[in-house]
Amino acid sequence: MDLLPTITHMGYDESNTGQKKSPEICVGIYSEIPSDIILKKKLLPKKRNNHTFIEDRLGVRGYRYLFFSRADYTKIESTPEKKLGIILGGLIYGEELRDYLQVFVDGYIEERKNDFTEGLLSDITGLPRDRIEIISGAKLDRKYNIVNVADETAHWLLQRMRKGEDFREAPHRKILLLEDLL
pTM, whole model, 2 decimals? Predict the structure, then answer.
């Protein structure tokens, strides 16, 4: 009897700071909760005012984050279509993945950016490109719970950073793989 292949689901969103005052905080949420990847008929609310229960909301979901600064953007500004691939690559690098990878990204991704990102993720994970799927679109942070939690987590981390918390040694932090990928 063949076992059904398993899928790693990741929701991605960022803090959308525009890198003017602080770096963007880019978050990947890993989830095996089936309801996290079901398209919601009614838009989910964005939770911005009270992060008291963020640990409960994260629950059994794993998360990773990294910072994307103005200096990082300067290094890739000649090829901005690589930004998403480099960020997702950093969030996924070294993670234990299943047979397939499905990434939900808030915001529409052009086909050439998607091609680069899938190719890069294939190189980093060792998964064949046909086992990597990127689902993108407007308001995915309000349509899929996995992206909604990523959005809330990015906002929570941004608020903590603005209060002066030090994230250099945080256990969920990842780094960009810029030197290796450019």
Answer: 0.89
